[in-house]
Amino acid sequence: MKQYPISNIRTLSDTIREFTLATPAWELAALTPGSHFRWLMPGEIGARRYSCVMFTAPATALTFAIKLNMAAASSQYLQSLKQGDKVSLEGPFNHFPQLIAPAEGRDVVIAGGIGVTPITGIVARLIVMGKHPECHYFTESRAQAVYATELTNLAGSSFHLHSSEGQKCDLAELLGTLQPDDRLHVCGSERLLSAVLDYCDDYQFPRQHIAFELFTTPFTKADTTEEGYEVEAAESGIRLQVAAGQSLLDALESAGLEPLYDCRRGECGVCALKVIEGDVEHRDFIMTPQEAATSGIIYPCVSHAKGCFLKLEL
């Protein structure tokens, strides 16, 4: 954990505030496109994860654009901050896969809402590599398209803004143009990401050519179960109960087990466990439906038993 003084604050829209932190150059050199930090909030608010804004590669500033919801204690804290205040951060971390970009194929970039923040670095990196990414930025309104000007300056005529007030885009039609050698970079809401992955599966576009990050808060209701179930860790000889409203990963940790994990959002694949017995309700973003049906794998940060019992190799 390290404290950083706030060197500048800008209001980008009625709900989005930008923070730039005073940072030595050697720390900026460690940032990679898609990097994020954990902001440690005071009291019982806990930690929040925010991605870096990077319009150059390498980065020249440590900047974050954060969407506020004033009903949340974390947003109230962020709204109270002023220039000169210090904030406590951990990082950088990066869960955004960096796809190798050979000469063949296009790079198509899709950002949804505040998910544009890590996308800025992806676009900057591709341009430094001599690529010409096709950028699509989906927002509710032009007023919320906070970095449209900067992305236009980077990508030129290959940048497209889609909002209810202007140009609209049929996502299925857009993804239907993808070719097997293309690469797709996506960050946005769970709804956007699910739609993208579903369409790509329908078009048989390879998952290994999709780099994505889900822009949401960990431990959402979707990660928990409405009904409890029993789990047996075969190698440890431990039996435990997953309570209603509890994630499987949390239950395993509470029982004294130490499964590996990283993102806790069903994206990175680190927490994968082998299922010996029982059916799984898959909620991860890693496997296609076809792979999930035959994999014998569960990602306990988001997935659950479909019945009342699971036996795991743990």
UniProtKB/TrEMBL annotation:
Family matches, as Pfam families:
FAD_binding_6, Fer2
The chain's coiled-coil residues are none
* Entries under CDD domains matching the protein: fer2
Q: Provide a Gene Ontology MF annotation, just one.
A: oxidoreductase activity
Specify whether Oxidoreductase is a keyword of the entry: yes
Q: Domain of life here?
A: Bacteria
What biological-process GO terms show up in the record? methylation
The segment(s) forming the 2Fe-2S ferredoxin-type domain are 229-314
Report the PANTHER family cross-referenced here.
CARNITINE MONOOXYGENASE REDUCTASE SUBUNIT (PTHR47354:SF1), NADH OXIDOREDUCTASE HCR (PTHR47354)
Q: What is this protein called?
A: Vanillate O-demethylase oxidoreductase
